[in-house]
Write a structure and sequence with these properties.
The complex is a heterodimer. By secondary structure, chain A is mainly alpha-helical. Chain A contains nine helices and no strands. Among the domains of chain A are: 77 residues, Up-down Bundle (Four Helix Bundle (Hemerythrin (Met), subunit A)), CATH 1.20.120.1200; 36 residues. The longest helix of chain A has 28 residues. The chains are: A mainly alpha, B mainly alpha. At the A-B interface, helix 1, helix 2 and helix 3 of A face helix 1, helix 5, helix 6 and helix 7 of B.
């Protein structure tokens, strides 16, 4: 057994076990924490496969940002998971079908590389082993797929603006801070010198 | 069998067949760790001393000459105290949180090049690795805040989650501008690029190598990175996570003894990491500031630590004389000021590099 194979078994065993615990644990916060463990181990597997850029982006994007928001939400919601799990048998068949389809697809993709190793060279853009994969991804995304890439970015931007607009409310009667106005306020606008006669007040 | 042999040789340097060809990785790592922890002890002391000096106090001065052994006395004090675990806390997560914080903070150091070729792991995606590890740092705080089962801890954790995620965005953009100029994600390459090109060469005074470093051409990004690093490590004036006037001690309220020590350790190691990143990205890493034989004779690692300490001095001074921000102001400066500025800078730097052909192309000026 070689060192990479050893690490492969460690990472995949922990990934599978923690993926199971995501479903099995009773506390939703524990579920999310196990989900994070699964992500980290998946990143380890990417790293072993030589896709170091993908591995670290997985950690930055999914673990560092998306899962933080998951955790944020599950911590704030007081969900009673026991009652949620009551309808589980009802939905189980659909879940099994979806899971089976995904498994078959994964097997087909992975199996084709094992059964027919020449598949890799038949890809639209063959894999070049000579350059590191950050450079390889960049050269592909910004040349061949530049419009698709920019299009995906535009879709995400629109979705983000949509989400912000949906939650943005301007209530009347709420005082808001305007930093620009505050900074531009001069002494003359802010103060007034009044001569007060003694015994009279203002 | 083959695996055990190679693992022994790589990790411990135990030669199974003939002589081992390298010093074991474990020894190097341990040596590095000890050096880092001793540096941490003195950085902590320096933080308190500088803070005290600004307020015309003496600071810790009882343990050892000038209080030099104060941090070690504190260490012993923390270790020998009784750890108190709240009865209604989630005990596993409660004890896991400080471990996560300190282990993540320490593990980022594996790619930091202290001198030419001194990085424990000189990987191709070093910057991305550090960015990924520092983005995980928020978990220690969230886990601590949630598992303590206490209002103050929870509020502190919520604040920190929002704060750290916000400032990571601008840190990411700052790193991207440096990467655009260098054209590599390797930290050693970033330092080497600052020795081989830059303003000093452009001005015709190549011996003034401190002009070469990226702090000058990318000055706005240097400032943004410094302030974002303060926010990312929860340093004052952005320490709303543990704002003692509002939240007692934030997510750390329920912690005592060794778990608390681990939080403090993680925090200060993360601060030093940010100082090291500033040194590497903007201050030329291990390079000497002026290219003369006398200064070049000083080892690169000494220059690196000196620069790290200089950046930390700025961190400490900011802590000493800037009042704490209000939370909405913190969010405003992150999203409405730093994000647009850094985004525009990324585009501007990319455009300038594209149209002028400047930038480091792997070696020649």
């Amino acid at each position: 057994m070689t060192l990479p194979l050893f690490f492969f078994y460690i990472f995949s065993a922990i990934a599978v076990a923690s993926a199971l615990m995501v479903i099995a644990s009773r506390n939703p916060v524990h579920s999310v924490l196990f989900l994070i463990l699964t992500f980290v181990n998946a990143a380890g597997l990417f790293m072993l496969a030589g896709a170091e850029f993908l591995a670290l982006i997985l950690i930055v994007v999914y673990v560092g940002a998306v899962a933080v928001l998951f955790l944020f939400v599950t911590m704030m919601l007081d969900v009673d998971f026991a009652s949620l799990k009551q309808g589980m048998l009802q939905y189980a068949p659909i879940g099994v079908v979806v899971g089976a389809i995904m498994l078959i697809e994964l097997l087909l993709v992975g199996g084709s590389y094992v059964l027919a190793p020449e598949v890799a060279s038949q890809a639209v853009v063959p894999i070049d082993a000579g350059i590191d994969n950050t450079r390889a991804l960049g050269q592909l995304l910004y040349t061949r797929y530049v419009f698709l890439f920019q299009g995906a970015g535009a879709v995400l931007l629109v979705a983000m603006i949509g989400a912000i607009v949906l939650t943005l409310r301007h209530k009347s009667g709420v005082k808001r801070q305007d930093i620009f106005k505050q900074s531009n306020r001069t002494r003359a606008q802010a103060t007034e010198l009044v001569k007060v006669k003694s015994g009279q007040g203002l | 069998m083959d695996f055990i042999v190679s693992a022994l040789d790589y990790l411990l340097g135990i030669p199974v067949f003939g002589w081992g060809d390298q010093i074991g990785f474990v020894y190097k790592g341990l040596l590095f760790l000890v050096a880092l922890l001793i540096l941490t002890a003195y950085i902590l002391l320096a933080d308190r001393k500088i803070w005290a000096a600004v307020q015309v106090r003496r600071g810790p001065n009882v343990v050892g000459p000038f209080g030099l052994l104060q941090s070690f006395a504190d260490l012993l004090k923390f270790v020998f105290k009784e750890p108190v675990i709240p009865a209604s806390s989630d005990k596993v997560v409660f004890l896991l949180a400080p471990l996560v914080t300190s282990v993540l903070a320490l593990s980022a150091w594996v790619v930091i090049p202290i001198d030419a070729g001194w990085a424990l792991a000189d990987i191709n995606v070093g910057v991305l690795y550090i960015f990924a590890i520092s983005s995980l740092g928020v978990y220690g705080i969230i886990m601590a805040g949630w598992s303590s089962n206490s209002k103050y801890a929870f509020l502190g954790a919520l604040r920190s989650a929002a704060q750290m995620v916000s400032y990571e965005v601008s840190i990411g953009f700052v790193i991207i501008t440096v990467l655009l100029v260098v054209g590599s994600l390797n930290l050693t390459d970033i330092v080497v690029a600052q020795q081989q090109m830059g303003l000093a060469y452009a001005l015709g005074v190549p011996w003034l190598s401190f002009l070469n470093w990226f702090w000058l051409p990318l000055f706005p990004m240097f400032v943004i990175f410094f302030i974002s690093a303060l926010a990312e490590t929860n340093r004052p004036p952005f320490d709303l996570v543990e704002a003692e006037s509002e939240l007692v001690a934030g997510f750390m309220v329920e912690y005592s003894s060794t778990p608390y020590l681990l939080f403090m350790l993680g925090e200060y190691v993360a601060i030093q990491l940010m100082c090291a990143m500033t040194t590497i990205l903007f201050l030329g890493g291990w390079a000497s500031p002026i290219d003369t034989p006398l200064l070049n004779w000083v080892p690169g690692s000494i220059w690196f630590v000196l620069k790290l300490c200089l950046v930390f001095f700025m961190f400490a001074m900011v802590k000493a004389f800037v009042p704490r921000y209000r939370y909405d102001q913190l969010m405003r400066i992150g999203w409405k000021v730093f994000l647009p500025i850094s985004l525009v800078m990324v585009i501007a730097v990319a455009a300038i590099l594209q149209f002028t052909g400047w930038g480091w192309h792997g070696g020649a000026v």
